[in-house]
Write a structure and sequence with these properties.
globular, Alpha-Beta Plaits, 8 helices, binds adenosine-3',5'-cyclic-monophosphate, alpha+beta, 154 residues
């Protein structure tokens, strides 16, 4: 099983889309193992987006992610990082396919509703940044046997 970080950015929170976004990811089969609503301190935003420091859109990113509350979700599932990114869709909502979250709910590049970890190392770093107290839960769901099939042997 793999874990990944999803942020519902300030545009998603302001538009009342936390439930819609979480619902799509839950319906896909992902398990919620962490959940927070927070006003992001600038220093934390800068650490989150450090990989983009120096790019022309960096200042705008930090400005935007600190402009209002953000919902942070830690999600678990098989191949969770890639799976979430497929459900979320391409970065620019005007290029994201219909059926994806950004494709259905967004229209402009700087208002793309969601951040999702893009690789295993990024997910570890970001989960640690957004859930620093380590309060991610480990629990079974009775329904898991109906969502995650065992790989056939041989
Ligand atoms: P996110 O997944 O939060 O991670 C980096 C963000 O940078 C991305 O979402 C976009 O919102 C933003 N981004 C990526 N490329 C560009 C770009 N060319 N211009 C402006 N913003 C961008």
């Amino acid at each position: 099983m793999e874990r990944t970080l999803v942020l519902v950015k300030p545009d998603g929170v302001q538009r009342g889309l936390i439930g819609e976004i979480l619902s799509r990811l839950e319906r896909k089969g992902l398990k919620v193992v962490g959940l927070r609503l927070l006003q992001v301190p600038r220093e934390m935003a800068e650490r989150h987006y450090a990989v983009h420091a120096g790019k022309h859109f960096y200042a705008g990113l930090v400005e935007f992610i600190t402009s209002g509350p953000v919902a942070a979700l830690a999600l678990e599932g098989p191949d969770a990082i890639a799976t979430v990114r497929r459900v979320v869709g391409q970065t620019m909502p005007n290029e994201a396919a219909p059926g994806t979250i950004r494709g259905d709910l967004g229209i402009s590049g700087l208002r793309n509703l969601i951040h999702a970890s893009d690789a295993a190392e990024t997910a570890v770093f970001e989960l640690d940044l957004w859930f620093p107290t380590g309060d991610l839960l480990d629990y079974p769901r009775a329904v898991d046997a109906w969502i995650v099939a065992e790989e056939p042997e041989g």
